[in-house]
Structure formats: C-alpha cells, structure tokens
Write a structure and sequence with these properties.
The chain is an alpha/beta fold. The chain contains nine helices and twelve strands. The chain starts with 11 loop residues before the first strand and ends in a 13-residue tail after the last strand.
C-alpha cells in the first residue's frame, strides 16, 4: 500500500533536477501541493542542459555546435526553467543553479568529488529540507543516476534526516506499482504542470509528444534502495572477458571517489559473481561500471549499485 508524504506548512521541499525540465516533469504537482499548503520549495539545478545538440541544430538551423553554441543554448534553457518554476509558483531566489555541463555529473563525482558534494551539502545545510526529491538510482540517464549518488552522499555529509523520495524519468521503477507513492491527482494542478513543461520550448521542438506524455501521467515516487550490510558489495553485473578489458570500476563514498581498470580493482570472484571490497567509511557507498568510450548512445548500460549500512531518511507517512 502506498502512502503520500505528509505535506503541510512546515514542509521544506528540495527537488534535485539534473537538467532543465526535470523539475517540472518529475515534481510539478508535488511542488504546487507543497506551496498550496504553505510550505517552502527550493530546486537545485545541476546542469544547464547545454549538451542537447539535436534540438539545438533544429531550432538554430546550424550543423556544427561549438563551445560558444553550447553556452548559448544552456543560457536559453536556464531562462526556460526559471519561467517553468514561475508557473509553478517558485520564485527565482529558490532556484540554486550549479551550472555544470550536461552529461558531466558522473565526471563531477569522479574528478571533483569533494567540491561536488560540498556544493550540494551547502545548499542542504542552508535550506534544511524536510523532504528531498531526487532521481532514482536506476534511472538510465547517466546524469540522473549520478545525481542520486551525489544527493545521498551530500545528505549524509550534512547530517540531514530529511525524508527521501526518488523519481524515475528514463526507465521503470524497481518497486511494484502498488508500492509507489502517488501523492496528487488534482486536475487543476495538472493543467498548471503542463503549462510549466511547455515553457521548456527548446524541448518541444523535437520531443513535444514524448514530453507531454510524461507530464500527463501521475507523478510516482519510490524510496531509496534498502540497506545492505557488509564490507564488500556483490556486483549485479557479469561482464565477459572482452568487456572486462575495457571496463572501469568507479567507487563513490563518504571518503571520496576512486576508479580502477577492471583488472586493477579490489575484486574477488565468488562463483559467477564479483565482490568489490569497500572502505570502512560511514554512510552509503555506490559503485558504477563505465567503459569511458565515446558513443552516441547516452544511456547507461550498467548503471549504479548501492551499499547502504544505515536507513535513509524517514518513511513516508499517511496524511493524518
């Protein structure tokens, strides 16, 4: 049985959006409900969505897009997210834009772990959210999965006890449909959400039908993966010998980020499974496989897996 989180005047909602439009697609209804109850809403925008070449080529009628073009497109999308949040009732002072590059959130964790975690931790400490809404760890877009990891590590670093809910944009939730949280089906708020999504005009150019399809479905939220004990993490992947020559293993935890070529990683074989030794660090640890190959396919093949020795946040409560 699914329960909606308690939303009232004391609620401080923080939504983590990897790109412009994720805030409206994932939580447009929840944002409105929170504001309608007298609560506060803040949004963290990790990237400006500047690596979005096909809509940009179509809209600007140009084939080559260099650094200046990506910067111009990112600035345009930043204006769109501000307009969308205005539709939802969120003022410009509640938008916290980090200005990272699209498709680079994993790289921020990998190369600039302390800075990245520190940036989001600072926002969490200032906003003091009671409810944190973040991408699902299993979302196939690499920026979304990495945003989950960043959020969980930052939440732990801040010592926050905020309730955590996750949303899926690219993929299917791991929980059964009856276990997902559907907090709002209000028709008037749904119409406002659609208006907010339409403010993302750059995304309407080639993906209008898909965007409006996502925006029209009920908002669904899950909870982070359940805790797992132990000093080693059993990997869910079984790459073949050839794949292992190209793969790298990325570990992100409260101590930082480390990555190894597969052959150099602290892995042990147990039957057909692989186990990765973890560091004795408080809080969650996350592992990802990556091939570091340039490819037009943007979605993750392997994704992330989590080991979490402690429960995360609170459990969603029924409305009293």
């Amino acid at each position: 049985m699914s329960y909606a989180p308690t939303i009232d005047a004391s609620t401080r909602l923080l939504v983590v959006a990897p790109h412009p439009d994720d805030e409206s697609l994932a939580a447009g209804l929840l944002i409105q409900r929170c504001l309608g109850m007298g609560g506060r809403v803040d949004v963290v925008l990790l990237t400006d969505g500047d690596d979005n070449p096909w809509p940009q080529r179509w809209v600007e009628k140009r084939l080559f897009i260099g650094a200046a073009g990506r910067k111009r497109w990112g600035a345009r999308r930043r204006l769109e997210v501000a307009a969308a949040l205005g539709r939802l009732g969120v003022g410009p002072d509640r938008l916290h834009a980090l200005g990272w590059h699209d498709m680079q959130v994993t790289m921020q964790l990998r190369r600039h772990h302390d800075t990245a975690v520190g940036a989001l931790r600072g926002i969490i400490e200032r906003v003091r959210p009671t409810l944190l809404v973040i991408p699902d760890l299993g979302d196939r877009h690499p920026d979304h999965g990495a945003a989950h990891v960043l959020s969980r590590l930052s939440l732990h670093a801040a010592g926050s006890s905020a309730e955590v809910l996750t949303y899926m944009v690219h993929g299917t939730e791991a929980s059964a449909p009856e276990d997902l949280i559907v907090p709002d089906l209000d028709g008037e708020r749904q119409a406002t959400k659609i208006a907010a999504v339409l403010e993302h005009a750059t995304q309407m150019a080639l993906s209008r039908q898909r965007m409006l399809g996502v925006a029209s479905r009920p908002e669904r939220f899950d909870r982070p993966p359940p805790p797992v004990a132990g000093d080693a993490l059993r990997l869910p992947w079984r790459p073949g010998p050839f794949a292992r020559t190209r793969l790298r293993v990325l570990l992100a935890d409260g101590q930082g980020a480390r990555h190894w070529a597969w052959r150099s990683a602290p892995l042990e074989r147990e039957g057909s499974d692989w186990l990765l030794a973890l560091r004795p660090v408080p809080g969650p640890a996350f592992v990802k496989l990556t091939a570091d190959l340039s490819t037009p396919w943007i979605y993750d093949r392997y994704g992330w897996v989590c080991q979490d020795p402690e429960p995360v946040g609170l459990v969603a409560r029924p409305v009293g």
